[in-house]
Amino acid sequence: MTDDGLMTLVNARLLAAVPVLGLALALAPAVAYAAPPETCNGSVDVALGTPRADVNGLVDSGSATIAFEGDAFGVSGRTIDESTFGGTVAAGNRFGASVAWGFDASGGGCSIVAIGAPGADEGKGKVYVFLVDEDGPALPAQVLSQDTDAVGSPAEVGDNFGSSLHFGGDLFVSWLAIGSPNEDIGSALNAGMVHVLPYDTSNFTGTGSVAYWQGQGGVGGGVEADDHFGASLGAGRNVWSLWVGAPEEDIGTTKDAGVIADLPGSFNGTTLKLPGTTGTQSTITQDSSGVPGAAETGDHFGAVLSALVGKYGTDRQPVIGVPGENIGSLIDAGNILVAYGDKTWASFQQGTKGTTGSVDGTAERGDKFGASLSTYGTSLLIGAPGEDVGSIVDAGAMHLMWASGSVPKLNGSREQSLSQSSTNVAGSSESGDRFGGSVAFGVNGAVIGAPGEDVGAVVDAGSVVYLPYVATSLTKVTGTGSLGLHAGNFGGSPETGAQFGAVAYSITY
């Protein structure tokens, strides 16, 4: 993969320990990965999660699919589950509920992949982290939980550790953030917690790790039941910073309005400071100064987080999906907000395409525009899985926007939208397909999940649609040459209700 000159190639490794905040950590040694190959023979293109897949008849045990770079998406790939790593496959583990991948600095730049199984061990949760190339994972994987690898917070039933994941760092991974949105803080049930574990080029370690919850370590807000702090994670203003979503946070008497915690981090070429250990932490809501809109009941602000590249390679411009936003009387029409590098904000919703805050389509009740996001450089994919295509309810649609300028900014005149009814797009729009339920940039094209797609007579088996880029550009895709792929294309079988394509992740440059 390339970054079109936007990425500063700094090998951000942990060169100094950082302060430990919030938790007394048991510094037990971590289990390291197996030795990686000297030279990797292929990088991950897109990682997919299918947490509702049944493995050996075990309901919602979950699986994940890793596709590698090729002339077209799906040329090579493999489907894995917990047994791949010697783990126990169990009903309800939901392996694949979260996926993330990046690059490891050792072993010829192998891909490093993290997959969450938040339902494992009665909902305590686990995260599997491993190096991988086209020959498969380098085994054993490192298995992280709140009881192992010096993470330091006791695992409890229902914490759902691993519900969300985010790698920090420039081209190479420097740390891993893991969300436990159902963590109880004192008597506040499901208040939520986030751990950030540094990477020492061989494994993630609890030594020097940090943990956050609301009202602790500088994080704003109070601990309240059902806030689900850590339900979403994304890059902050640079690649070493972290934004944490608490989409069910109440703002005063406004229920489930949502809030984001901004945890700054830094790297000066010598010392890495993990998120929240440097700078000034802040709390962002739709009532914050300069943020478009207003905090409203059910907005779930911060439910989806991503980030565009900013003015410089390591700068980021966070993008926030607000799929629960009401547009006038249109409930859950959805919108997105962008925090630009010059400290201005922009808001986009579906409407008459123009040069300001609208894109293709019409805002309608239940569209959930912004329910999924993916960024690659200055390009942005947006899913609207609740979009009706004509009279076809919840068929779904996707949008592709791209930013430009000295401070890269989006513009409604630079936008493309497609559905499965668009010319040459694989498949056809059908009720309940939810095309756009997930979105991801690949090397040679975009990948759009349709988790409600029926595969033959197999209801809600799920699929993904690969849309090639036009002339190798990240600013336009085409239905010509598109592929409709399901679990059977990656060594599995379509399953009723598995919803293949529900989770997708591409590296965010």
Characterization of the model:
This protein has 509 residues and is mainly beta. Helix content is 1%, strand content 30%. The strands form 8 sheets. Strands 4, 5, 6, 7 and 8 form a 5-stranded antiparallel sheet that branches. The N and C termini lie close together (10 Å).
Characterize the overall form.
globular
Residue-averaged pLDDT, rounded? Answer: 87
DSSP strand content: 25-35%
- Distance from first to last alpha carbon: 10 Å
Structural class: mainly beta
Would you spell out the secondary-structure blueprint of this structure?
Blueprint: E1 44-50, E2 63-68, E3 77-80, E4 98-103, E5 111-117, H1 120-123, E6 126-133, E7 136-137, E8 142-144, E9 164-168, E10 175-180, E11 193-198, E12 210-212, E13 232-235, E14 242-246, E15 259-263, E16 266-267, E17 272-273, E18 282-284, E19 304-309, E20 316-322, E21 335-339, E22 345-350, E23 358-359, E24 372-376, E25 379-384, E26 397-402, E27 415-418, E28 438-441, E29 445-450, E30 463-468, E31 483-485, E32 503-505
Parallel strand pairs: 22-23
Antiparallel strand pairs: 1-2, 1-32, 2-3, 4-5, 5-6, 6-7, 6-8, 9-10, 10-11, 11-12, 13-14, 14-15, 15-18, 16-17, 19-20, 20-21, 21-22, 24-25, 25-26, 26-27, 28-29, 29-30, 30-31
Give structural attributes:
509 residues; five-stranded antiparallel β-sheet; five-stranded mixed β-sheet; 32 strands
Quick recap:
The protein has one helix and 32 strands.
